[in-house]
Specification:
Number of domains: 2
Largest sheet: 13 strands, mixed
Strand content: 15-25%
Length: 361
């Protein structure tokens, strides 16, 4: 179901009114998802052996917190405990944890990305390798701090084309950064032919760019050539300090609604309370601060890229050649959703230190 707040915002915009700034509850309010996330994390950790627990749990401030990647594990080795090291019963609890912060849509995308890696394992011939790059076994869970400690903590799922980061301070939750990718973007052979895990992000982005008038497209265009990857990917948290492109105020009512629907597609990957919380942050910082940018042609035969960027939202999407196949079709997606002010719960942690310990960070 579409977010009610976003539906209302779009309706107001369609009526010619300014973008709303204060719909919904304050971000500082307790999250309905926090108890569920904490309970499922506690249940998963309780299912581990002592040796497995040592692999899975890190200090809250361990560098592992930001050490995620979209690359295969053979290129970027992971820490934590992998799906391949878990029993079937433990994997069930791991999937309960993944579902605890995601909507049904978000969980289907996340599990689809992992399943797609199993498809890629066979399409690439890696299934015959002693050390395959791809597959369902190669996704790692890490815990930063203890869920039952009462102190700030978080958990991370990290593997090829998928990274989830949830940070909790009391009953407040931050759900970014989130990385989702797919290779192939559209399966074009075998029994899975036609499968597109991230089709809506792709289709809606192209539709928005095509809806722009020539002078608007000129303002949105960053480059005639798409970048090889998203810019603010793993290890590049502050790579885009300033929004660029076409301002939200430069869109007509229908285009504003289309941009908000596109943002909504990313927001609705999270549980409704977390999606509304993130939307509240965008509303308060102001849609008039948001910009839409594009690089490359307007798809889909050549590599293309789009970006939606404001003080509390950063979305990047890149559809490019698969690695090592520059002569092949454009069929390899990377996308990232970030909150520049609250990735890894940084805003939550800052307020926690100021309110609980009198510290300024």
């Amino acid at each position: 179901m579409r977010s009610f707040r976003l539906l209302l915002a779009a309706a107001l915009l369609g009526a010619g009114l300014t973008a709303p700034r204060g719909l919904g509850a304050e971000t500082a309010a307790a999250s309905a998802s926090a108890p569920r996330i904490r309970a499922t994390a506690t249940g998963f950790l309780a299912s581990l052996t002592a040796e497995q627990r040592k692999l899975a749990v890190f200090a809250a401030d361990d560098p592992e917190r930001k050490d995620w990647s979209n690359l295969p594990h053979t290129i970027h080795p992971r820490k934590g405990i992998s799906m391949g090291e878990l029993s079937p019963e433990q994997r069930i609890k791991a999937h309960h944890l993944i579902q605890s912060g995601l909507s049904s849509q978000g969980y289907l995308k996340a599990s689809g990305i992992m399943q797609l890696d199993e498809v890629l394992l066979h399409l690439s011939g890696q299934d015959k390798s002693d050390k395959p790059m791809f597959g369902l076994r190669y996704y790692w869970l890490s815990f930063l701090g203890e869920p039952a400690s009462g102190k700030p903590w978080g958990w991370q799922l990290d593997g090829h084309h998928l990274a989830l980061n949830f940070s909790l301070v009391g009953d407040e939750v931050a759900a970014t950064p989130t990385f989702m990718g797919s290779d192939p973007h559209e399966v074009r052979d075998g029994v899975h032919a036609g499968w597109r895990v991230l089709g809506a992000e792709d289709d809606q982005g192209i539709a928005l760019m095509r809806s722009l008038r020539p002078e608007q497209q000129k303002q949105a265009l960053l480059s005639a050539v798409a970048p090889a990857d998203v810019v603010a990917g793993p290890g590049r948290d502050k790579a885009l300090p300033k929004p660029e492109g076409l301002a939200f105020s430069g869109l007509d009512a229908g285009q504003k609604t289309a941009l908000m629907w596109l943002v909504d597609e990313y927001l609705r990957n999270y549980r409704p309370d977390l999606a509304h919380q993130q939307l509240d942050r965008i509303n308060r910082s102001g849609w008039d601060q948001v910009r839409f940018a594009w690089a490359g042609p307007v798809g889909p035969t050549e590599a293309y890229y789009y970006r939606i960027h404001g003080p509390t939202v950063l979305i990047e999407f890149d559809n490019n050649h698969p690695p090592g196949r520059k002569d092949g079709p454009i069929n390899h997606i990377h996308s990232v959703y970030r909150d520049p002010q609250n990735d890894y719960g940084e805003d939550l942690l800052k307020r926690h230190l100021e309110q609980s310990h009198g510290q300024k960070k």
